[in-house]
Design brief:
The protein is an alpha/beta fold. The chain has 23 helices and 23 strands. The strands form four sheets. The protein has an eleven-stranded mixed beta sheet, sandwiched between helices. A seven-stranded mixed beta sheet has the order 19-20-18-21-22-17-23, with helices on both faces. Helix 8 packs antiparallel against helix 9 and helix 22 packs across helix 23.
Length: 683
Amino acid sequence: MGKKKRRTDHDDVIRVPSKKGKETSKPRKQQKKFQPPPQTRQIEDSEETPLNPYDELLATMKGDKTSTEAVSSSDSDNGNDEKDEKVLNDEGFLDYDNVDEMNDAVSSDSEAEQDGTDTSPVANDPFRRHFLIDLEEGSVEKLSKKKENWVKTELTVDPVGRVSELCCPLLPSGEQASTHYDVKKANVKKKLVTGLTLANQSNMDGDHIKNETQSFVYSVISQYKDLCFNERTPENAEDLRMVYCLHALNHMLKTRSRVVSHNTKIKLKKEVVDEYRDQGLTRPKVLILVPFRESALRVVNCMIKLLFGDGAQFVTNKKRFYDAFGSSHVVKSQGKKPADYDAVFAGNTDDHFRIGVGVAKKNLRLYVPFYSADVIITSPLGLRTVIGAEGDENRDFDFLSSIEMLIVDQVDVFLMQNWEHIQHIMKHMHLQPTESHGVDFSRVRFWSLNGWAKYYRQTIVLSQIVAPEINSVLSSFCCNFAGEVHAMPSTFKGTISSIVAQMSQIFHKIQVSSFQESVEARMNFFVQKILPQYRESVMAQTLVFVPSYFDFVKIRNYFKKEEFNFLPICEYTKEKMIHRARTLFFSGRLHFVLYTERVHFYHRYRIRGTKHIIFYDLPVYPHFYSELCNFLVDSVQNNEHVTCTVLYTNYDALKLAAVVGSERAARMIHSDKAVHMFVTGES
């Protein structure tokens, strides 16, 4: 039997299934060429776009009767006799790429009964319990205010650590977190349970997830609570990716089952009732932010394993995807790097990409245009270039209006890329769309029409570190009525114990009354108290470590003004200049080197010849502290005079605890003393 030819824009024939199930051919109608408004454009990934269906969609919205490709499922009221012959996608729009969708629609009711999608009580299904609730206006007003009135519960969960949960007292919050979770409690699709037992076999005990970290995370996110998990490591990265991909796919398949089932019932009843409101203002439901193409590749591979298990894989554009996101052309870094560096920068580390993914019961479609996609996998930079800035002519963010699940993986890496991109994206979530994009408003949920989608959106944040910027994602941009959970280590041992040589480290506390005041106070303290001690020739070969690029610029400008003997090394410094600075510093001909955390994150240079270190601020990654202090090992072994000076304020408590340990940090923060000294190897 011959293989069906895929429709392209150049076909002269539209092939549709006849009422007897056979393909028939009809000549394509001559269509008027429609020019979309200047602000309207096709949004996909950064690769080439094979199809452009939106011109025809917009033509239908404008009343162009010759358009035959953008027919809504509600067109039956308009006497569209051809609608029953056409293939509708999950949202009720015409889809030639899924010819088997009509068969899925016929079997959707039995599928729902088998999986319990529509037949189980609302209280037993987290999906229905969350999205079938219509919030009252009074509840929305309370959710829109700050969370000081929410009920906070704190407990210790082994082996996770300290867990704090915030719940709105007026609304249901679901079940408590568990480290031995049965996936049946979340009404997971049987297809996905089968895939999970195969892909996650070593961590499963029947239908229970025996991996305690996986079980805890899934027990939280399956209840559609927000989660900030600050204990992501290279060792548990794949385990966490498995559970959030399981949750995202389960969400999409349940959404799809409801939509397809309602499509069938609407065809039979020829009317749309409020019970069938199952959609948002735009189609994309899940947004996954990851830092590199390699991360996106692993997410898609995980989805393929969960959807298809050991069976046949039906993935469109698979080869194109692996060619673009694979690591066949990756240049490996030079020199030996730490294990955590190899884990972060494995594979393709391009950070400018975006791709739409369509999820169906029997196939996974890659490179789907955003307004036809179910899941969008993107980097912050890739999405920022689409959203644009105020005043840009070609910008679009309507596809973010109905996101129901936001997953931010490796969020700590975004601090090293550009945190402003994350803030920009969060500010453009759930804004009023500028166009209808072919939506059938009779199928849109009331809470989405009211502009309350942000109160239903679940946000999942996974991080390797604890940082105020990361916590602010949930505190500033999230107001999920299901509540939120924060998980972090119970105590920090401190990376100071990883310093090899015995050496003293002096910590100076800068007294400030507000966080805003700390910026200028730190600079003044550094210039007036610290620098005079290091300008003498005996203090040559001093490395000044500056985490913030803005602080780096201020110090660099001051050094230039005072004509210090120094060279800067930052993420924007050319490789030739970096090599020159390192060579001069090692030979002792350079007194100071300014060194940023971002350049260390991306390259992990070993600055040989270092005899003195000044930490202008504590590093975001606590293990960088011990790495830089170990630059002094050679000088210590040569019995040379070495020093280490650290500046901190009361607002650096989290970073301080990660470096010196929780107990020491508490004493240092609350102590009246302004100077504390530690010697490596002593308690």
